[in-house]
Amino acid sequence: MGYIKAESVLPEEIISLVQEYIDGECLYIPRKSGKEKAWGERNGTRKAIKERDEEIFHKYSKGVTVLELAKTYYLSDKSIRRIICKEKNL
Description:
Blueprint: H1 6-9, H2 12-21, H3 45-61, H4 66-73, H5 77-88
Helix pairs in contact: 3-5, 4-5
């Protein structure tokens, strides 16, 4: 989440009104209902994990063992098995 200077987006009247309640502090303004983004969508984490999972399944399909994959990706063998099972069902 980046910061935007209030002066560049809000009228002076609104800034003055907000300053009556919170002066010089950071203020989080949530998104409108229905416009929220799911976890990992904004910074690409979701996409990166999906690509990693597909890669794990591909390597497993080519004969790489669960334990080798666990060491390579720094995951538990249980996590690798979960990923393989999930990818099989897609």
